[in-house]
Amino acid sequence: AAPSQATTATADTRTFDAALAHPRLLAELSEAIASHQLAYALQPKIDLRSGRLLGAELLVRWDHPRLGPMAPDEFVPIAEQARTIGEMTLYLVRHGLAHCRGWPATGDRLHVSINVSANDLADPRLVDAIIDACEGDSPGLMLEITETEVMREPERVAEALPRLRSHGIGISVDDFGAGHSSLVNLRRLAPDELKIDRSFVHALLASHSDRAIVRATIHLGHELGASVAAEGIEDEATRTWLTQAGCDAGQGFWIGRPMPPAEFMELLRAQG
Ligand code: C2E
Ligand code: MG
Ligand code: MG
Ligand code: MG
After folding, report:
1. Interface ipTM > 0.85
2. Are 143 and 59 in contact (CB under 8 A)?
């Protein structure tokens, strides 16, 4: 076991350091939240048939004072082991919705999608705070949760959903097909959107089985009354195939990279 441990430490020094520094990293994350230093990018999401913007997904960004820019995968899982995830989610919901209230009207019903963890939805006070943040005139809010997250707190997540839904907040199952799925959970969640994982999307033109899975997912989503989105669209041919297969919404580098909020605002303005 010793050699493989050594390899892990040298191959991914930064993760190794982060693991040693959890308490410090969490304190620094709380500090970034309290001093409004935590940032986010917005990635456009379009209606595949019309090509028009439907809104954006908000993706957290942290420019750490010592470590430099950190990817969400480097600190979100750590925050999820602590109460810090709730602070972060609420911060992003409040800041994200405040930003969206400044979006120009495009004639479309726009929404912002925010990623949440099971811990967030399992905490009734946080669910209340999210609902409070939605009061007033603002674009729609959609919460994205992965199947794996749902499985960590299936009962409590299922309890939170009707309350969120009664306030007009949508639920999207993120990375659909890639997690610990269960059709029982899917039935219980009754999501508003299924978001097909990009591992099925990125090479679908070269893979018969990926195309079969995507087609079946689109059908399943529609039969359940959900809208179906695809993430990870990286070229025009994939977008065309998905549109013809009946997929409703799309996201990916070919459509638009995650960008600063001001830049997304310009995109909306250009659409008019
Ligand atoms: P996700 O929610 O599935 O987000 C999509 C990720 O795929 C983003 O990475 C995005 O930059 C990337 N992506 C988008 N289009 C393409 C594409 O065409 N090709 C490829 N290869 N990648 C694409 P990012 O921003 O690094 O986020 C990674 C994950 O971190 C997210 O996956 C989400 O699970 C988590 N995350 C991000 N922001 C938040 C947040 O605010 N809260 C929570 N709880 N989790 C977050
Ligand atoms: Mg997401
Ligand atoms: Mg995803
Ligand atoms: Mg993902």
Report:
1. yes
2. no
